[in-house]
Amino acid sequence: MNQVMIVEFAKAVALLLALCLIHGFIVRRWASGELVGRGLSGILFGGICVIGMMTPIEVTPGVIFDARSVVLSMAGLFGGPVIGGIAAAIAGGYRLWLGGGGVLVGVSVVISCVLLGLAYRYGRQRGWLRVGVWQLLAFGLLVHLVEVYLFTFLPDDVVAKVMENVALPLILTFTPATALLGGLLLSIELQTQTGKSLAESEARFRDVAEVAGDWIWEMDSDLRFTFVSPRFFQLFPLKSDEIIGKTRKELAGVVREEEPWREHLETLKNRHPFRDFEYSVMASDGQTRHMRISGNPIFDAGNNFLGYRGTGTNITERKMAEAAILASKEEAVVANRAKSEFLANMSHELRTPLNSILGYSQMLQNEIFGPIGDSRYSEYATSINVSGNHLFKIISDILDISKIEAGKATIEETEVDIAKAVRDCIAMVKERGREKEIRVEENTPGDLPTLRADERQVKQILLNLLSNAVKFTPDGGQVIVNTRVDDASCIEVSVSDTGIGIDSKDIPKVLQPFGQVAESHNRGHEGTGLGLPICNSLMELHGGTLEIESELGMGTTATVRFPLERTINHEISHTSDGLAGYGR
After folding, report:
1. Is residue 225 part of a domain?
2. Same domain? 326 vs 186
């Protein structure tokens, strides 16, 4: 019987190999699991079972053993319900046709083997079970133990013959046969899945290459193009034979900027990846196209260089937009400079007639050549003088800021008595302060050092700060000017008021030209909004700073601080109250 089992095992192996070959062809032909392919595989598994049952091991008349248990269990595991069901129907039908005393047990073996295979498949799909050599051996042992168990339902004398002659050889031969067939079918399954994944990947790559906004390219080891996706030819008026087989530098119309190209060629020579290399191509239509490319080197398993693969992007529109923006900026700069230079050069032409208006109106107002006669002439002359002074101040501010913006403002340095300059400016605004009952006070040490600065500009700064303080302080308020030398021996002047204040978020705005905070139709104060910007610019000319501290409804403090190098005498001993004495 052992020799018979060995022969049966050899026959089973031959059948299993034939099964694998034909099944592999069917699976590859209908790789997507079409119903036709599954039907053919089911017929194949069932047919192999029929062939095995044609030459079985017969224990007693009607009781046979063959390799159907191996085939059917694998049909359930690797084929699923459709293939397993078709194979079971064919094998079970043929076993019924054979008949004999063991027919019911034989059909039970057919059904149980397929069900065990399907159960294994379910556990594998859920991740509970794996498929490997040892797992297949264990599964084969289980299948044939169940088969032997089913034969125990035969008459006792038949069972005795089965146990004595067939059971052990059956388990020892068909268990490894099950593992063998399972291994072959698993290999076919993996190959099919790999081929399917590769085909899907190629299709995905092809679809992306054809419709992507960018393009894909490949080069060989000589850095010659071997592939460029169709999208490239949609973007650029070039033909395939103008690209394929050529290096990037050999492309017709390439605009080469020496330094970038030298670095790029060095990168390619060293087989390094590169990102965002930009270059231009003069197309056959006479238009310049700009592109940006990135690439990675490709190496085989032996680390041999195969070429480059990467992507490209059409940046022509972006380059054109950048050029347009740059041109617009240059035009704006030129126009602004021309405006500033024009206004700066118009100083004499604008101020001269205003001086005449002011001079003649003063003569009328003061009746230089005798009484006018009618009091209304004097009234008109006063209005002319007030309006002219106001207009003169506005135009002066505009011309001053234009001169500064045009870069024509200069410093005529002298030694400035800062205490006297403060007192002179306070005297200029005191009359208007009295009209609003505003107290204008100063807090100036008696022995301040002199300041190396432009005296006219220093007074212009102080007068602007004082004028703003008086202008924006309600009737009955207070303005205080503090002059001191700080701990770093820098001269510092601050003007504080009890006025309407400024919101902290608006402070940067008021330091910009024409940057008034309130809406023009709601403003209750005249002016161009140039006072603080002029002060800020003049302090920058002196290397100093202007700082504004303010809170709505709580007043404002404006502080100008000159740098140390502008303090002429700075051997200072500070007193405890913050006022300074100076050694001469």
Report:
1. yes
2. no
Among residues 296, 314, 332, which one ends one of the domains? 314
> What does pLDDT average to over the chain?
80
Most confident of 91-105, 395-409, 503-517: 91-105
Is residue 380 in some structural domain? yes
Amino acid at position 296, single letter: N
Domains identified in the chain, total number: 4
* Residue-range definition of the domain harbouring residue 142: 2-200
Domain of 55, CATH number, reads: 1.10.1760
Strands of the sheet with 254-255, listed across from one edge: 225-228, 215-219, 305-314, 288-299, 274-282, 254-255
For the entire predicted model, the pTM comes to 0.42
Could you tell me which residues come within 8 angstroms of residue 515 by beta carbon, excluding any fewer than 6 positions away? 509, 529, 532, 533
Residue 492 has pLDDT above 90, yes or no: yes
Same domain flag for 182 and 329:
no
Q: Tell me the per-residue pLDDT of 292-312, one tens digit each, with 9 for 90 and over.
A: 888 899 998 888 999 998 888
CATH number of the domain residue 220 falls in: 3.30.450.20
Do both 309 and 329 map to the same domain? no
Evaluate whether residue 206 is within a structural domain: no
Q: What is the pLDDT of residue 116?
A: 94
* 419/477 same-domain check: yes
Q: Tokens in use for 449?
A: 């050092």
> Which two tokens mark 532?
């603080």
Residue 525 pLDDT > 60? no
In this structure, which amino acid lies at residue 304?
N
Question: Within 13 Å and on the Cβ side, how many CA atoms surround 63?
Answer: 20
User: Which tokens in the block code for residue 507?
Assistant: 């402070």
- pLDDT at res. 584: 28
Mark whether 531 and 418 lie in a shared domain. Answer: yes
DSSP codes, 193-209:
HHHHHHHHHHHHHHHHH
Copy the structure tokens of residue 283.
């197309």
Burial 541-558 (b: 16+ CB within 10 A, else e): ebebebebbbeeeebbbb
Nearest by Cα to 66 from 58, 75, 74, 56? 56
Gap between the Cα atoms of 516 and 402, Å rounded: 18
Model pLDDT for residues 49-94, shown as the tens digit of each residue: 888 888 777 778 888 878 888 889 988 998 899 999 999 999 999 9
- Which of the residue ranges 45-49, 332-336, 580-584 would you say has the lowest mean pLDDT? 580-584
Final residue of a domain: which of 200, 234, 261? 200
Query: Does residue 429 surpass a pLDDT of 80?
Result: yes
The reply to whether 350 and 471 lie within a common domain is no
d(CA 54, CA 101): 17
β-pairing, 439-443 with 478-485?
A: parallel
Judgement on whether residues 107 and 41 belong to the same structural domain of the protein? yes
Neighbours of 536 (CB within 10 A): 22
Helix, strand or coil, per DSSP, at residue 243: coil
The percentage of the chain sitting over the pLDDT mark of 90, rounded to a whole number, equals 21
Select from 72, 52, 42, 74 the least CA-distant residue to 189.
74
Reduced to 3 states, what is the DSSP secondary structure of residue 557?
A: strand
State the pLDDT at residue 308: 92
